[in-house]
Amino acid sequence: MSILSRVVAIARRKSPWICRLNAGSCNGCDIEITPLLSPRYDAEQLGIELHGTPKHADIVLISGTLTHRSRKAILDIYDQVPSPKAVVALGSCPASGNVFAGSPTVLNESLDTIVPVDVWVPGCPPRPQAILDGIARAAKLLEEGATRSQLARSLQGQQAQPQPQPAQPDLTQPELARCEQGRP
Amino acid sequence: MSELWKYLLAFGVWPGLLCAAPLGWLELWFMRKLVARLQGRQGPPFFQPFFDFMKLLGKETVIPRGVGRGIFLALPIVSLAAVTAALAIVPMPGNPIPSLPGDVVLLLYLMEVPILCEVLAGYVSRSIYGQVAAMREALLSLAYNLPFLVAIIAMAQHVGSFQMQALQGAPFSVVHVVAGLTFLLALPARMKLNPFSIANAEHEIIADSHIEYSGPPLALFKLSHAIEVVLLTELFAVVFVPATPWPLVSAVLYLAVGIAVLGLVTLLATSTARLRLTQAFRFYWLWGGLASVATMAATLVW
Ligand code: SF4
């Protein structure tokens, strides 16, 4: 690995820019992101910057239960993020639908079936520390070139084959995921 | 041939790209750290602007559909080249370029190019947000350029020459003080800092006119902004701070003055909220206009 690509890899860990995507959240998860930028948690120490546009982002934070209407928006936003990119799913909703599971307006599948998720941050809502930890882990994955989109790309480059479909999530036990709701 | 080498040296090494880029990152880091400390936060680590730049270099560039590829990629390069060329003209101690007659005019022209590039970048991006940002930038530049240009032109009038070296070597007088204050008045808007951060209002229009940019072109825009910060602060130091006969002392003095000016505008930026475009416009045409009149009057009296 040349020195330049090494520096770029380190820079990816040191400067993760995030972009939020509310896919139908109750706003509980989103409001927990704000303290990250406040004096208490101060995400800027890790180089984290919140950007409004997906074009500047490295990491997309997706929160909320997935609705029929947000599916296309998620794909759209995800495609606009220039690679290398990582996806962090916030809260229990993207995994299981949480308390909204079974509603007719809700897509009863995990976020993993729409975009490749790299880090799951459980909780309803997750605590700011947990979100910070999730972003830091995603940034580490970006440095190692080990996010799922990066891996898929390198596979594609090696074999010139279509990207493997993300695995179907195990939705047989939605209750299990629901139990994971973090309580302070 | 040796002339050409001098220009290349000034453009590429000192005070051009090679030295100005780290200096710009240092100044950006200083501003961000100061903002963080004033807000009671820890702030970013020292190498943060460098890491941001390197990371953007390693990212993919997404070009929106229907946007001219050539102009989309050329704008950041033109912007960076223009600010670096402008910085190369500034007679920093040790600058190898000989002083040209009328280089103040060239400098003022080159300093407008990055703004023009930003406006064009907003318009070619075909994003509504980018176009709003471009419109705001273009309108605001009409306002803050009044005190900015008058401050420099009054100095030239005072010295009786459009040569940077003459401006630098002028004996200190009241005109320096008045024109310097007028320059400082225009500085926050030129740097797009807070009460006048109307063009890059991240809450209303998401990002500035670079909204559709990503990867290396965005990195070049960020670098050009960093160098612009160096250019503006050092221009202030060179024109309005009396030069010393020792180059090394002058260099340290210029750097210190630059950092002090940055601290001042950052303090203003942290303690104020964003104005509306009309308010900023009125402010610059009223108070900037009055300051300009006072500056011109000072050149006539002293
Ligand atoms: S996980 Fe909980 S807090 Fe987060 S969006 Fe779902 S219901 Fe709201």
UniProtKB/TrEMBL annotation, chain B:
Locations listed in the record: Membrane
UniProt key word Transmembrane helix: yes
Gene Ontology CC, one term: plasma membrane
Transmembrane segments: 12-31, 71-92, 104-126, 138-160, 166-187, 226-245, 251-271, 283-301
Membrane topology (UniProt): Multi-pass membrane protein
Entry-linked Pfam families: NADHdh
Keywords for the protein's UniProt record, in alphabetical order: Membrane, Plasmid, Transmembrane, Transmembrane helix
Superkingdom of source: Bacteria
InterPro entries (UniProt xref): ComplexI_Subunit1, NADH_UbQ_OxRdtase_su1/FPO
Main location: membrane
The protein's name: Hydroxyacid dehydrogenase
Species per Swiss-Prot/TrEMBL record: Azospirillum thermophilum
Lineage: Bacteria, Pseudomonadati, Pseudomonadota, Alphaproteobacteria, Rhodospirillales
